[in-house]
Amino acid sequence: MKTDRTMSSRYMQWAKTCSTARFNLATSGVLTVARSEFPLQDAALEITAPGGYGYPPLLQRLSKYTGAAEQCIVTAIGTSMANHLAFAAVLERGDEVLIEQPGYGPLIDVAEYLGATVKRLPRRAEARFAIDPAELDQMITSRTKLIVLTNLHNPSGALLDAETLREVGRIAHDAGTHVLVDEVYLEMLADAPRAFPLGEGFGDANPFIITSSLTKAYGLSGLRCGWILASPDLAKRIWLLNDLFGVNAAHLAERASVVAFDHLGQFRQRASALLRENGALLDSFLDSRPDLDCVRPPAGTVVFPKLHAVHAAGFVKFLRERYEVSVVPGEFFDAPDHFRIGIGGETAELRGGLERMAAALDSFHDSSNRVISS
Ligand SMILES: Cc1ncc(COP(=O)(O)O)c(C=O)c1O
User: Fold this and answer.
1) Which of 21, 87, 110, 209 has the most beta carbons within 10 angstroms of its beta carbon?
2) d(CA 278, CA 179)
3) For domain 40-262, which CATH number applies: 3.40.50.2000, 3.40.640.10, 3.30.565.10, 3.40.50.300?
4) How far is the CA of 148 from the centre of ligand 1 (A)?
């Protein structure tokens, strides 16, 4: 049967099949941890555990890590499945969802797949990609059932401050809608304001749903260790809904995730050292490029510059074809004048990629000027 429903993710297909290059600056996570760096002893592994609603040792670690009570936690296969489950638990066909723009494509795809109507909440580069709670308030209707934000923002890396989050929570609570904050990149910022505890003042009616994972910040993408924080009633509904999807997680991955939590300090240090060095390279690159308008986030692995005067999509193609450097075209975030640079990879690769990007920008401007003046 043919259907008009969104049944795939254009961005994900591009990321899986087209994003790599000799200098790959299209990634958004921290360089993956090798097996030799991962402190997993065979004795810590078991293939099968009794099924249930969560693996108790993992729920315990998550409760300690997030500060949320165990009955507020649902484990999931990465932030991706966490988002899908949370959306599916609160949305019905025809409901409205407000999703930030620019925004991460799969969030929109999942909402559309579930039959929701997506409206876009602007996060403007001129406003440093901040959210205007008054504007958000104006956009909510009686059909709005979910507001979706990322923090840190993908693609810009912008951080939402506690005051904005509190205000958004209050607006959502008054309107009887939920706010999903995808915090997968916030894991990179230890002391950042987190939305779920901010919403606890509303008791059982906490409007916040948090999704996250260990995939991006710690280089542990292969574990697919994701989670959802939600009020106890909603968390229970999500567990029950999960029985229609994967039912249980792969137990080896749950065991390895427990090991990861028990050594998180080690992975955090590894990531901070890498990002300190890579962040310095990015800063000096951006300092040298007046042709790029770029909000510099307080942390994270991505920035989302805008290219002055020239066509960003044309530049991204030129950069890849002539200089073997890949970045993510802004069109995937519905912001075609921008492109996203990821700095979480190998330092040498980033250094080479940024040097080539500088050369490509100079050459691209030259050729654009020649076309204009001829
Ligand atoms: C905002 C956002 N959420 C979720 C994901 C997917 O995360 P995971 O690998 O944990 O499924 C990504 C990946 O790029 C992302 O950018």
Assistant:
1) 209
2) 33
3) 3.40.640.10
4) 13
Burial 254-279, CB ≥16 within 10 A → b, else e: bbbbbbbbeebeebbebbbebbeebb
Residues 144-166: pLDDT tens digits? Answer: 999 999 999 999 999 999 999 99
211 in contact with ligand 1, CB cutoff 6 A = no
Q: Where are the domains of the chain?
A: 11-30+265-369, 40-262
**Structural contact between residues 139 and 102, judged by C-beta atoms closer than 8 angstroms:** no
β-sheet bridge partners, residue 77: 225
- 11-30+265-369: CATH class: alpha beta
Taking only the tens place, the pLDDT of each residue in 15-57 is 999 999 999 999 999 999 999 999 999 888 999 998 899 999 9
Cα dihedral: 183, 187, 193, 199 (round 10)? 40
Write the DSSP symbol of residue 25.
Answer: -
